[in-house]
Amino acid sequence: MAVWSYLVWPLALLVAVTDLCWRRIPNFLLLSFLLLGLGFRFWEGNLASLLVGLQGLLVGFAILFPPYCRRWVGGGDLKLLATLGTLGGPLYAVYTFAAGALIGGVFSLCLLARHRRLQPVLRGVWWEHFLPGSMPWRTGITFPYGVCLALGGVVAVWCV
Q1: pLDDT at position 112
Q2: Predicted confidence band at 132 (pLDDT cuts at 50, 70, 90)?
Q3: Domain, as residue range, for 87
Q4: pLDDT of res. 120
Q5: Which residues contact 19 (CB under 8 A, 6 or more apart)?
Q6: What domain count does the chain have?
Q7: Are 96 and 156 in contact (CB under 8 A)?
């Protein structure tokens, strides 16, 4: 395993705890891991490895920027994926997003079922398919998506 993969575990744990407890992902935490990731990339490789880390930062940022603009995810989630992309590179950022989206989707379905809103939402998705724009999409249920991205980052370590 590469050195950067050992940074994913503590980052995921700290993000999960802070996002679950306070619904915030501290900037100093993300910035410190971002700088550590860039430093390890430069130390373990050369300038080319550092550029891969910067590409991962851009890819991670670009993936979640449109949902951030629509207020579907928070700024901490955006910065978390960019930081994880810095650690693992652009392909790792894509895998992290995919795994985090799957985990978040399962978590969303469980939350909707727990709040007894799964059936109305699924019915709305059905009608939205045939009559676009006919159903509102807000349910009022929110959850810390950073936890899903952090778990996705841990899962994606084995994919890269």
Answers
A1: 87
A2: low
A3: 5-156
A4: 82
A5: 25, 76, 144, 146, 147, 150
A6: 1
A7: yes
